[in-house]
Design a protein that fits this description.
Elements (H helix, E strand, L loop, with lengths): L4 H25 L4 E13 L2 E12 L2 H22 L6 E12 L14 E14 L5 H11 L3 E8 L4 H26 L3 E15 L5 H9 L10 E14 L1
Antiparallel strand pairs: 1-7, 2-4, 2-5, 3-4, 6-7
Helix pairs in contact: 2-3, 3-5
């Protein structure tokens, strides 16, 4: 069979168009050898901020009476705290509400029974965030004696943890690279390149505070000393390497 030059070129183009998909499929179907590993790093940094919520909850037959009692107790608490060394910049109002309370449902209510307002509840809470860590026990003691009946979310933390997150992530990444190099050396493979990096989780854990001990200290004549301790920042990363 003889071809002209133009016919030969068309025949070659058809042949190549049929072969190219076959070669492309083979290249994409080839599995790349991989090494996947995870590593973590934990930093310990001294706490530099005390945080807690102090609240006064009062009940009264009228909104005015409940509010007057609540305001009086909160004023005393704040005055005592400021005399002890807390500044107005160290706290702000986090919640204030006035809501009615209702008569409880009887055991076998009649069909036409409806609840009615029998009083009012006033809640006033402040959020304390201060660098005066040594005042933790004193704040709890003074607030409790002034009539605060809701003290919660007590913890020591960091004013700005972003810079420590970056440091923890860098340490976790370095640990992952070191582990990969050690595994490659031990198994006789070569690390070609990093295919992907996953940030699994970054956690900031504040020291745990024993609420039972705090309650016992608040009932005593002197404030309970509370140690701030360290805050842990933990980062976890996963690396996927191409190997050969």
């Amino acid at each position: 069979m003889r071809f002209t030059k133009g016919e030969f070129m068309k025949w070659m183009a058809c042949l190549l168009s049929a072969l190219i998909p076959i070669f492309a499929f083979s290249a994409h179907g080839q599995e790349i050898p991989k090494l996947t590993l995870s590593a973590s790093a934990t930093l310990l940094k001294p706490a530099d901020e005390l945080q807690m919520k102090i609240g006064v909850v009062t009940l009264g037959p009228t909104a005015e009476e409940a509010l007057a009692e609540n305001s009086g107790k909160m004023r005393v608490a704040l005055a005592d705290l400021e005399r002890a060394g807390l500044n107005s910049d160290d706290y702000e109002t986090s919640q204030f509400s006035i809501q009615p309370t209702y008569t409880p449902s009887p055991q076998n209510p009649p069909s036409d029974w409806r609840p009615s307002i029998n009083g009012y509840e006033v809640t006033h809470s402040i959020h304390i965030h201060t660098g005066k860590l040594a005042m933790a026990g004193q704040i709890i003691d003074l607030a409790n004696k002034a009539g605060a009946n809701s003290i919660s979310d007590i913890r020591f933390g960091l004013r700005s943890s972003k810079e420590y997150w970056t440091e923890a992530l860098a340490a976790a990444g370095a640990n992952a690279v070191g582990d990969a190099q050690a595994i490659a050396a031990a198994t006789g493979v070569r690390l070609v390149r990093v295919l992907s990096i996953f940030l699994n989780n970054t956690q900031v854990r504040s020291p745990q505070i024993n609420m039972a001990c705090l309650a016992k200290g608040a009932r005593s004549d002197s404030s309970l000393p509370i140690e701030a301790g360290d805050v842990s920042i933990e980062a976890n990363v996963t690396l996927v390497y191409e190997i050969e």
